[in-house]
Every structure is written in C-alpha cells, then in structure tokens.
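Quick start: load a record and inspect it. Here is Bestrophin family ion channel:
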Amino acid sequence: MIRSVGTLGPVKIAGIVAWRLRWDLLAIVVVAGVLLPVPDPTQIDYASAVLSVLGIGASVFIGFRNTTAYNRWWEARTLWGSVIINSRATHNTLCSVDSGAPGMVEILDRMRRRQARYCWQLAAELRGIAPIPEAADLTPEDPAGTSATNLLTRQAEDVQTLSATGSIDNQARVMLMNVNTALVGAQSGLERIRNEPIPIIYEIFIRGLAWFFAVMAFSRLDGSAHPVTGVVIGLLLMIVFITAERLGHFIEQPMSNTVFDISMYRFCATITGNLLGAGHRMAQPRESAKATVWM
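Running the structure step on this input writes:
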C-alpha cells in the first residue's frame, strides 16, 4: 500500500506510480511522435462535437470501471478487518474459557499460535507467494505445507478435543466455532475477489476506448492554431486518460503482490501482537512507520 509520508511524500508517490506506468508513458510518447507529422484527419465539420461526445463516453466508462475497482479494493480491506476482529475474538474467547488446567493450557497456547500462523499463511496464499519462513515456526506441531483452510480445520479439531475432554461446555464450543466460521467466510470473500477479476473483455474495451479517445484528442489538438500548446495539452490529455484507466486496473487487484496491495503483512503483525504479545518478533512491522510502501 502506497502512503504519503513526510514533506516529499507526494513526490515519492508520483515517482512510484510513474515507474509502474513507465511502459504506458513510453507508449504515449511514441504514439504522439508518430502522430505529429501525420496530417490531421479530424479537422472536419462537427469534429469538436463528436470528440466531446466521445470524451463524455470515455469518462463515464472509465469512471464506472474505477468505481467498481475501488469497491473491490475496499471490500478486500473490510474483509481483512473481519479477520482482525475475529482473531481478537478468538483470543478473548480462549481467555474466557481458560481454567488453568495443564492439558488445556497447552491446547489454548497452540490455538493462539495457530491463529497467528493462519493470518500469515492466508496473506501469502492470496498474494500467490510462499509464506515467510517464520510463519511455520509458530506451530511446529502442524506440517510446514499446511494451507490456511487446513489450519482453520485444525483449530476446529482442537475445539472438539476441548469439548470431548470436558474442558469447555457446549456454549463455549459454540462461541469458538462461531468465530472460526466467521473467519471461513472472510477468507472465502477474499479468495473470491482474488480469483474473480473484472472480465477481460470489458477490461480490453475500457483500455481500447481510453486509447482511442486519447489518440483522437491529441490528433485534434495537434492541428490547432497553436501547435506547441496543442501538442502539450494533447500529451497531458493522453496521460490523464491512460493513467486513470491504468490506476483502475491496479486497484482492482488488491492482493496482487504489488505496491498497490492492501497492507496484509501489517495486518498480520497486528494480529500476532494481539495473540502472542506486542514483544513477539513477528508482531513487529516489517517496514518503519515512515516507509512509503507498506506490504
């Protein structure tokens, strides 16, 4: 997640976004260079009116797409908020049923450590990368390659063990399984967002529309009575429309392991601190508070 920090924050953000858009910006310059010596085909009657209608259409489609993309980003952030809430609820419920019995203490400690590992494992799976090595060390009782789904299943098995041994009553069992089920729901929602992007045909259409309008607008302005001013304004118009379309593409994938991700590892560190104590090594943020990008 890109953040504006310090006096030079906006400049750093602009640099990061520009680097991410470097090939698109290069394409804009190349297209503009190719169009400069070409006679303007749009200097016909009513060309301005046609271009205005096309601009309105492009703006509406790009705006709708970007709104949809932001909604996906915000939904992912909300679902991660649910993971944080239910992880804390798990910890609170475990504290409330803890009788101090030796066998019970061991299980509850394992469940807290597994809950923290679950969050790190889920973040890695959503990003499509290997989990950090320290995550598996949280629960050496579980196999190294255990998935996030299986970790929740193991949590449910420990709840069943606690219930079978009489360590907790039925009401406590229901409470623990309620938060477990809520975590399953949040995970399923996050996986849906990751696995079901905006249809590729629609994305191609929006990108093609943005480029078509940008090229037509540049061609029109290039043939104006003030060629230098027209070229500059045309370039800026192309950059604005293409950048707007690309930013929508970036934020519609909030778990793509890029700088546009939501800060999932930051959430995992917070959850680890809640469950295992703020002094735990995995509860420490992986980036400083002054970092421009949090992952």
